[in-house]
Amino acid sequence: MSGESTVAIGLLLPDVLGTYSDAGNATILAQRLRWRGIAAEIRTITARDVPPTGCAVYLLGGGEDTAQLFAADWLRRHDQLRRTLETSAVTLAVCAGLQILGRSMTDSKGKHYPGLGLLDISTAPGRQRAVGEVIASCAVPGVGSLTGFENHRGVTTLGPDIAPLGRVVTGTGNGTREGGRHRGEGVLTERIIGTYLHGPVLARNPALADHILQQATGQILPALELPDQAALRQTYLRGHAVSG
Amino acid sequence: MVVQTPGVGPVATAPSGQLSLGWWTRAAVHAGLVTAGLSRRLGLGAGSIIGGRVTLVLDRHALRHLAAGRRVVLVSGTNGKTTTSHLVAAAVRTAGRVAHNAGGSNMADGAVAALAEARDAEYAVLEVDELHLAAVAEAVDPAVVVLLNLTRDQLDRATEVGAIASAVGGALARHPGTVVVANADDPMVVSAAKSATRSVWVAAGASWLGDATSCPRCGNTLTFTEPGWQCSCGLARPAPDWWIEGSKACTADAVLPLDIRLPGQVNRSNAAMAIAAACAVGVPADQAAAALREVDVVAGRYAVVHRGEQELRMLLAKNPAGWAGMLSILGEPRPLLVIINAREADGRDTSWLWDVPFEQFGSRQVVASGERAADLGVRLSYAGLEHRTVADPLAALKALPAGQIDVVANYTAFHQFRRRLGREREVAG
Ligand SMILES: [Zn+2]
């Protein structure tokens, strides 16, 4: 049904990794394109489907432990998709979705599981669950402060050559310090944005949504004013830099 | 017409006479009642929670002692427990006196308070929070447990739905005398209720399966083939003992009118569960069904409030499943005021708004309100719903026309709004 000019957004495994309403990120990306006159479609890819490899953007959400291992296993079985994520598409991975893309994950009993290996990160359970609001300053130029709600036990350690998406101002984020100094939140590579922020993250951080869309389409997108958006950011960023 | 309760053997008769308590429990109950009365006189609210808490501090076995000798029905699930417990209480009241936590205080302290305030009631109908169901069931040895549904509620509550289901399953396995009246259409409920010795399955429907597309037992993807569902591991929808056809509740040998005043398909499901539960404690089904007509307002929900030229229908929905059920209640496109807060009792994380199918609300006048009006407003824009945003709910009413208006609020927003409307009336005299 999609023509050449339709941007396809692949929502991966919402039936498995749909616990924290991160599917909203797909709606947000599609609507922001449509409002600018660019055709967009959301392809919902469940565990029963053979995943299409032609999407410009792929999304992975958060989920509970069993679901996370199931999703990691499913992704490993679909090598074509793995190669697409590695070489051509732009991916937004949230929480469990972020952990899956790393080298390894450790469960609460200390058992190790391999990740997809697309990111040089590893995740192990922390002492206690990190639940609450997060503010981070985003490393993507022009995005400003990131706001979101985290709910996870994972502590994610980044390899030496991979940068976080932002620096934590309040909250936990990755739970580790980048270069032993600043506390990091998520990861940022050329193709993959990983974060612990729900909200969904793109509802609260429209500049990050547009960054993803510009990466995926290669187009510079005109600014978009949405009612209530400024008030929403004001709600969560009161007293912090609100730009973006 | 007397209907044999399906799936359940002969029903024991209710015990009668004064229930005896040990002197220490008696003293603890007395202290709790005095505190509750004092709290009420000081205008600190209904007083039942603080009273129950005092009793429990003085005697931590108070719940067990107060429940002893009564036929207890526990009503639990993520959505509909307040409404369903009111329906069950109305039905059981046709057979005898009933202790009921009607105000919706649904943890152990609320149960203690309800039992303490109705010492001579031979029945108890207790709404219980699903996180506390296993513990309360251990204490009261219920005659019946009603399990409506188990879905994700507040995202920042650390406990996962699967963990709740297995705790409930464990408690049911330890009480072989308990009859579980369970929703056959909810896979999570079925996995919890499977461990009960005696079960009555009700095809009560599932309005939202966001958490239940994978098997609660093995994690595999469930296969849904109307009206059933199944998994390769063997977990499947049980054959229902009760089902709904139009506005009738049916068993293999009876058809009963679901002649209720509460709106929507979701409440017909609650009513069918309530009739099945009342039958399980020995109330004749037709007698139970007839009693449900008595219920029109449930802890302020479904009330119609007249304010100037406007007629507000007060509705509560606090999670995606609750909202999905709300779609059947908000039939005709009346103007809509939605009020959203994100306090402790609501869950601090507003992400769940993105799992509410606002896209299906069609064209109607909508005003977004509450302490998280902006979160809601952004969500509505992306859903393509034109709306206005006014954070203060009373001010928001000014943006809506005269006539009938549906007000849907989440937990603390609902109660705040009710209180403010109430205060307005007092001032107006
Ligand atoms: Zn299974």
Q: Terminal Cα separation of chain B, in Å? A: 49 Å
The tally of structural domains of chain A comes to: 1
Structural class of chain A: alpha/beta
Number of helical regions of chain A = 7
Helix content of chain B: 25-40%
Secondary structure: helix percent of chain A: 25-40%
Oligomer, anyone?
heterodimer
The CATH topology assignment of the largest domain in chain B is UDP-N-acetylmuramoyl-L-alanine:D-glutamate ligase
Strand tally of chain A? 13
Bound molecules: zinc ion
Chart the SSEs and their pairings.
The complex is a heterodimer of chains A (244) and B (429).
Chain A: E1 7-12, H1 24-34, E2 40-45, E3 57-60, H2 65-77, H3 79-87, E4 90-94, H4 96-100, E5 104-106, E6 112-114, E7 121-138, E8 145-158, E9 166-170, E10 177-178, E11 182-185, E12 187-188, E13 192-195, H5 201-204, H6 206-217, H7 229-237
Parallel strand pairs in A: 1-2, 1-3, 3-4, 4-13, 5-7
Antiparallel strand pairs in A: 5-6, 7-8, 7-9, 9-11, 10-11, 12-13
Helix pairs in contact in A: 1-6
Chain B: H1 23-41, H2 48-58, H3 62-67, E1 71-76, H4 81-92, E2 98-100, H5 108-117, E3 123-127, H6 133-140, E4 144-147, H7 161-173, E5 179-183, H8 187-193, E6 198-202, E7 223-225, E8 228-230, E9 243-245, E10 248-251, E11 254-257, H9 265-280, H10 285-291, E12 304-307, E13 310-316, H11 320-329, E14 336-339, E15 366-369, H12 373-382, E16 388-389, H13 393-397, E17 403-409, H14 411-428
Parallel strand pairs in B: 1-3, 1-4, 2-3, 4-5, 5-6, 13-17, 14-15, 14-17, 15-16
Antiparallel strand pairs in B: 7-8, 9-10, 10-11, 12-13
